[in-house]
Amino acid sequence: MKKEKSNIKKMRIEPYMFLIPSFLVFGVFLFFPFFKTIYLSLYKTNKMGQAKLFVGLDNYTTLFKSASFYNSLLVTLIFVAIVVIGSMALGLVTAMLCNKTFPGIRFFSTAFALPMAIASSSAAMIFKIMLHPSVGIINKLLGTSINWVHDPKYALVCVALLTAWLNSGINFLYFSAGLSNIDETIYERASVDGANGVQQFFRLTLPGLAPIMFYTLVVNIIQAFQSFGQVKILTEGGPGESTNLIVYSIYRDAFFNYRFGSAAAQSVILFIIIMVLTLVMFRIERKGVKY
């Protein structure tokens, strides 16, 4: 009996033993930084980032009284909207173009998926040359002399479009996988019933892609909120604060102004925003499935 009990105990404990390495990795690289950030957000720090004076929620109240912080939130929301819509639309269009077999499909599929393999810093450097006011190819083609990344009217849109293109590669793969799972016979039956291409797209393709589209939407929103490299290289948050995304504001506060407490508070607020948006989207998706 004792042997049986010890075997049962061992069987219950053994699976959790295999999880210990994973928990250690998560603890060092995820949980510790997360709780450390919350801890720092309650303190004033020195230039080395060490907590020196406990101020409670003072860092948060200071942020919510700051016009610059509200501007960074607004700029971030506009940026995220452009990036998510642009990258998903581009990924869906390219996936549909490569959904049929034709000569050279491998070349086009590789080209459409390529952005996911390009570092944001490298793409930003190339984009910066393309947008140069005097030697850039964009102004040459349009016959203009606009200083794209230094004009408040265009800077945010330029950074957002670059980010949308960078994110479109992985979206192309997601949507290609989703389209391959849709049964081709339903299109044949729809054609026999007289449905045109537009009707087939809205009545068959989009509903068939619904689960993939939801997942892609969540991933793209999270990625867009965390965009940094392209902002740093193209605009550095300027001109003025027209591209001062909340992630860049965190970087600037921490490593230029040495206000680690304020930067940590902004990080916590960003985490809450992303978490709330994700939970709301999952709630909406569940209701859609239910009804």
List the helices and strands and how they pair.
Layout: H1 2-40, E1 43-45, E2 51-54, H2 58-64, H3 67-97, H4 105-113, H5 120-130, H6 137-142, H7 155-180, H8 185-192, H9 197-225, H10 229-234, H11 246-255, H12 260-290
Antiparallel strand pairs: 1-2
What does this molecule look like?
The chain is mostly helical and 291 residues long. It starts with a helix and ends with a helix. The mean pLDDT is 88. Helix 11 (246-255) packs antiparallel against helix 12 (260-290). Strand 1 and strand 2 form a beta hairpin. It has a single domain (58-290), classed as MetI-like (MetI-like fold, Orthogonal Bundle), CATH 1.10.3720.10. Strands 1-2 form a two-stranded antiparallel sheet. The protein has twelve helices and two strands; from the N terminus they run H-E-E-H-H-H-H-H-H-H-H-H-H-H. The chain has helices at residues 2-40, 58-64, 67-97, 105-113, 120-130, 137-142, 155-180, 185-192, 197-225, 229-234, 246-255, 260-290, and strands at 43-45, 51-54.
